[in-house]
């Protein structure tokens, strides 16, 4: 059913639907979907919740993930993913684009755009990928104030506090910050860039009852673990933030090389989504049928026979 008439879209707010998915006993699998098309493909593969990565979004815009894009640019991505898929979406809110009031503006904007959850991190600008070195950490109390601001502004949005402290303050620092952020109103914790299974295990043990997110980004510091392995470690959510974009980018690179080399895309055709497949994913026929039914309904009777 096209979103334009939308009587098959979920009625409950996305935040409530994200919370319900999170309360299920199995780990919540959140594949990155960097645009509406990726969201539809992830949904077709059977996923029922998604992740919008700052790294993937900025890279798709040809930019590095240094906290330089704006709330409205992110809202553009949220809207297309929520509209196309109808799935609850966790959005990367970086550092919240400023201090308390900026964080509150972000929360309202993201929620109104259709987000179900957001994560907010304790880095200072320019923030960077959690798996890089020399990250600058915010003061823990300043971050807690931002978490409190986010919790105050949300209606249903799930608030996840990310801490980048493990690299510089160790597990003790990460756990102390996580506790503070939970006290400030966070619904869950994202301990970023853990480098061993033992670290995942220790964080789990020292934060009993706290919902935890694992980040399975490729080419990072975290060892390659499956969703099942994270579930067995007691984690509640797992993201594969940039995977869809990495695969799409590599395919594009091959296409442009082939075009430059051959002056034709022929060699790449077997690797292409066909026209029929594309139209199937985006539901072209359903939109056309909708248009047709509207056109029919306004034809006056005297013109019909
Ligand atoms: C989760 C993350 O913030 C993202 O933007 O998706 C990144 C992912 C990455 O750069 O691999 C991160 O900082 O881990």
Automatic annotation (TrEMBL):
<comment type="function">
    <text>Catalyzes the thermodynamically favored C-C bond cleavage of (2R,3S)-2-methylisocitrate to yield pyruvate and succinate.</text>
</comment>
<dbReference type="InterPro" id="IPR018523">
    <property type="entry name" value="Isocitrate_lyase_ph_CS"/>
</dbReference>
<keyword id="KW-0456">Lyase</keyword>
<comment type="pathway">
    <text>Organic acid metabolism; propanoate degradation.</text>
</comment>
<dbReference type="InterPro" id="IPR039556">
    <property type="entry name" value="ICL/PEPM"/>
</dbReference>
<comment type="similarity">
    <text>Belongs to the isocitrate lyase/PEP mutase superfamily. Methylisocitrate lyase family.</text>
</comment>
<keyword id="KW-0460">Magnesium</keyword>
<dbReference type="InterPro" id="IPR015813">
    <property type="entry name" value="Pyrv/PenolPyrv_kinase-like_dom"/>
</dbReference>
<keyword id="KW-0479">Metal-binding</keyword>
<dbReference type="InterPro" id="IPR012695">
    <property type="entry name" value="PrpB"/>
</dbReference>
<protein>
    <recommendedName>
        <fullName>Methylisocitrate lyase</fullName>
        <ecNumber>4.1.3.30</ecNumber>
    </recommendedName>
</protein>
<dbReference type="GO" id="GO:0046421">
    <property type="term" value="F:methylisocitrate lyase activity"/>
</dbReference>
<dbReference type="InterPro" id="IPR040442">
    <property type="entry name" value="Pyrv_kinase-like_dom_sf"/>
</dbReference>
<dbReference type="Pfam" id="PF13714">
    <property type="entry name" value="PEP_mutase"/>
</dbReference>
